[in-house]
Amino acid sequence: MKNFKLYIDNQYSNWTIDIDKYIKITQDIFNFYMTCPEIVEYCCLKNYEYETISFDILFTNGEQTHKINKEYRNKDYPADIITFAVFADSPENEKFVLDMEINLGEIIIGLDKIIEEAAKKEISKETELIFMISHGILHLLGFDHQSEEEFNFVVTHQKLALKSMGITYDKI
Length: 172
Fold this sequence. Notes:
Helices cover 46% and strands 18% of the residues. The chain contains seven helices and four strands; from the N terminus they run βααβαβαβααα.
């Protein structure tokens, strides 16, 4: 498997995150996606040579995701997840690989929103967080969900990623 660099910053004081645990979980999800031919074939990494994949995850709160959503996306509400897929969203002629490393971008997750959603679904906040991380990774790889078909593709692969880790997720 390729090298994997992930930086996680937790700015949300009401949930102490085991950073090493979530780095491993995130790497496992990414590695699982790289075993799925339908992801590998259509993701933003196709046709690029690289040795290392990197990206960042920021854990914050709904107040911060609201500010980011408003400033960068012209959306006036707090989000559970915001993904800046810098590699996938760059035009082909502007994508670059520096020192054989591709930086996919950043995932921003509002942990208070994750806790709320987990309570609504009656599942653990950890399971909901892992599900959202898997969602963000798919966005970083260039997958969106503007149509029902795209939505089903994304959710199906999120569930498969969790299943590969022994987690059942059926709360959509």
